[in-house]
Amino acid sequence: MAKAAAKKADTVLVSDTVDPKIQAVVKTYAHFHGVKIRIIGHAEGVTDKGEMCRMLDEGGVAGVVVQQPNRYGIIEDYGGFAEACHDKKALLIMNSVAADLALLKTPGEWGADIAVGDGQSLGISMSFGGPYVGYMCCTEKLMRKMPGRIVGETRDSRGNRSFVLTLQAREQHIRRQKATSNICSNESLMALFVTVYMATMGRNGLKEAASLSYAGAHYLCDELVKTGRFTLVYNHPFFNEFCVRYDGDVDALQSKLADNGILGGVKIADDILMFAVTEKRTKEEIDRLVDLCK
Questions:
Q1: Rounded (10°) CA dihedral 229, 231, 237, 242
Q2: For residue 97, how many other CB atoms are within 10 A of its CB?
Q3: Dihedral, CA atoms, 274, 280, 286, 287, nearest 10 degrees?
Q4: Using an 8 Å Cβ cutoff, are 230 and 243 in contact?
Q5: Please, what sign has the CA dihedral across residues 82, 85, 90, 95?
Q6: pLDDT tens-digit map of 118-176
Q7: Residue 8's pLDDT is what?
């Protein structure tokens, strides 16, 4: 979308704090569409804004992709990012976990032009990796560049409430090589899961679930640090994921936790583990994990 919205720019900048799996998918799509991908470095776990601005100054940039929270669980401060991008005629694209936005500042509030992310956290079970559902939002100015079809509400000839496909570009049918919907997949069942979950939880329920995740992660982090065997890697605010450095054998610790029915974080370096806590984890379960780590 960023390249389609730009006239001559053919480069998209991706922050290195974006999940590596997402980076890999972006590079694959870009490779076959003539889009150049450049990676913005990070400093102490957050996007290097200075480096991003220098890369924007070089010109030819259609968009910048960032993530909130980022790959390390950090809640980044994206103040001024949208202005820096727009000054150079580039779009700001923000990837976020849907459930986290019940508490966090939204992509729109940061000034992002396009918001994308995963919706698994909205009532869909892990299911060993799928199927899941994603979301994509954009400013009104970019609506006609959206891949897929936009459903709008209207009234039929009898005055009954109904829904129809709207803002559908004719290229979808008559010029397939220029269509924007080729990458779409039909995840209606997963979207139904999300709809039922959100309707059941309501605004306050979504905030409560996100608050439980946040509180649980911070409690686990504090308790692990108290053992004297863990130190927090990055001194930045985090949501429900965080990275800690362990002073022992990480592989042995993970095996011990697994033997006790606990997924002991994700190993992201020889001595670093990344833990995540969701609203489903109880204080008793967290305390049990900490006891096994002592």
A1: -60
A2: 21
A3: 180
A4: no
A5: negative
A6: 989 998 888 888 788 888 899 988 887 776 667 788 999 999 999 887 766 555 555 65
A7: 84
Q: CA gyration radius for the chain?
A: 21
Q: Residue 260 to residues 117, 124, 188: CA-CA distances in angstroms?
A: 33, 25, 37
Domain residue ranges of the chain, discontinuous segments joined by +:
2-142, 201-293
CA–CA separation, 95 and 97 (whole Å):
7
The CATH architecture assigned to 2-142 reads 3-Layer(aba) Sandwich (3.40)
Contacts of 259 (CB under 8 A, 6+ apart): none
What integer pLDDT is reported at residue 227 of this predicted model?
93
CATH class of 201-293: alpha beta
- The 10s digit of each residue's pLDDT in 180-228 is 555 555 567 888 889 999 999 999 999 999 999 999 999 999 999 999 9
283: left (phi over 0), alpha (psi -120 to 50) or beta: alpha
Q: Where are the beta strands (DSSP E) in the chain?
A: 11-15, 36-40, 42-43, 46-47, 61-68, 91-96, 114-118, 134-138, 150-155, 161-166, 230-232, 241-246, 266-269, 272-276
Phi-psi region of 166 (alpha: psi -120 to 50; beta: other; left: phi over 0): beta
**Reduced to 3 states, what is the DSSP secondary structure of residue 279?**
coil
Q: Tens digit of pLDDT for each residue in 52-88?
A: 999 999 999 999 999 999 999 999 999 999 999 999 9
pLDDT for res 286: 96
Q: How far apart are CA 254 and CA 51, in angstroms?
A: 36
Alpha helices (runs of H) in 227-279, residue ranges in sequence order = 250-259
